[in-house]
Amino acid sequence: MTGAKRKKKSLPWSKMRIPRCEDFKQWCRRRLPILEWATHYSLKESLLPDTVSGMMLAVQQVAQGLAFAVLSSVHPVFGLYGSLFPAIIYAIFGMGRHVATGTFALTSLISANAVERLVPLSSQNLTTHSNTSVLGLSDFEMQRIGVAAAVSFLGGVIQVAMFVLQLGSATFLITEPVVSAMTTGAATHVVTSQAKYLLGMKMPHISGPLGFFYIYAYIFKNIKSVQLEALLLSLLSIVVLVLVKELNEQFKRKIKIVLPVDLVLMIAASFTCYCTDMENTYGLEVVGHIPKGIPPPRAPPMNILSAVITEAFGVALVGYVASLALAQGSAKKFRYSVDDNQEFLAHGLSNVIASFFFCIPSAAAMGRTAGLYSTGAKTQVACLISCIFVLIVIYTIGPLLYWLPMCVLASIIVVGLKGMLIQFRDLKRYWNVDKIDWGIWVSTYIFTICFAANVGLLFGVVCTTAIVIGRFPRAKTLSTKNMKEMEFKVKTEMDDYEQSTLVSSLSGVCNEEATQPCLNPKCSLVLDCSGLTFSDYTGVSMLVEVYMDCKNKSVDVSLVHCTASLIKAMKYCGNLDSEKPIFFESVSAAISNIHLNKNLSILSDHSEI
């Protein structure tokens, strides 16, 4: 008995496999995606477009770094650090090859709440005026960046914890309407926060529930204090930025290098302000002294982590959701895959490690990612090259931006949010596809405006979950036995025509077989949609994506048993083939159509001969 017991205890250990060198290499490739694409990097094909894209991206990183640092209520130089270190870390651990990580408007706005609450502007007179040993900045500025770095550190720890718990699989609850509404609402908040710089007004920091409305109430109450010079310069900057960027977009196929209007505007405004002494003549607020160099790393203050936990959760969730949407969009556009859990690790480390280098919370930005698309970037090498140019700015050009007017910087922020603000146009699509998604968008946007981005995101996820649970009892369960018999019968009938047909059943989720490449050049796919009792915008988009993928691979797709609402939604959502019918009342009707098309193609081949 004793021997038997010992044998039983040793049994689990005998089943354990000793890790091999190959397993370690595979783990490294999975957790360090740079090892996967760097080994296949083509210097001849990719280096030139990546270099051009990196130069253009560096201009955006510098402009947005300065602007979003001010938005985060810290010294502008810390925005330059936030444009450098997170980009390097994400290039190593991230899977999005066209995602530009760095300072982000939404996370900066969230961290500003913690900065203003723990180190308010009124405490500046209470702190010592002596400069610290770090870049010659005051104790007040170092206290503020300490709070922002603490938010970044704790937010990154939360993201890494979510990676360990494998919570990336739960992101299916964060649907496209929720992300669109949350980012649009947060962009509206950012524009509102820049109103004081655009108008040249002195305004106290206003946040909290309904703070959005209190800001505009304060503006209208003190409308006489608007600085006319700042207002005119803001309007001129916005017009120039919008006009030149639209021209770049129109002629991007004819010109290889687009005009870096952000950099040109910053240089022109700084030079004009210096020559005319606008700071003293008109009282125009400028960026001020920007010290050179990078200070040695320092741990963020750990004693205030409990005080910033709310903002840290907001940074972790909002930053991850916005970044994941961009990574998935680039992966879909350029045909590669993105692991949701790996993105948690990449952004978590980008925040944790960068917090030791005085960085504000980071995430991927839509404007910078779109810039990589338009300039033809191939890989994350473009982001690494942009970091070289950001380093040059930090060590040489940075102090020359002393005279950059704050109203110009605010104009760059507002125009950079154009991609988020025009998401209002999505409302028409949601209304035509699924009115429930339209309601989720509107309610999520309202909650984001009234409270905050993280509150709006949470509300949208809860609404989506409740609606899915409410719709789930209406779902049907189809007999797979009948489907197997139908599939066998169809394949038997079509053998004479040397054409293969796959009959697939849809019950809420599209079959992955539908997207697999077909070995036979003449394939057909029949999707039985009788199990789809409801269809939202995300589901319809996925179905249209399957159809377009099959169409690009010369696979004919037939949809049977579709409801009238699904047919209407798919016709509105996608560019379906108008020449060939794709919707049928039954599987047999779809099969008959496949027979007919095959006979017609045979007759056509004979007539050509």
From TrEMBL:
Gene name of the encoded protein: SLC26A7
Source organism of the structure: Bos taurus
Source organism phylogeny: Eukaryota, Metazoa, Chordata, Craniata, Vertebrata
InterPro entries registered for this protein in UniProt: SLC26A/SulP_dom (IPR011547), SLC26A/SulP_fam (IPR001902), STAS_dom (IPR002645), STAS_dom_sf (IPR036513)
UniProt keyword list: Membrane, Transmembrane, Transmembrane helix, Transport
Gene Ontology biological-process annotations: transmembrane transport
Protein name as it appears in the record: Solute carrier family 26 member 7
Residues annotated as domain STAS: 525-594
Keyword S-adenosyl-L-methionine attached: no
Membrane topology: Multi-pass membrane protein
GO CC annotation, single: membrane
Localization per record: Membrane
Signal peptide from the UniProt entry: none
TM region(s), chain numbering: 65-93, 145-165, 203-220, 226-244, 256-274, 304-327, 348-367, 379-397, 402-424, 444-469
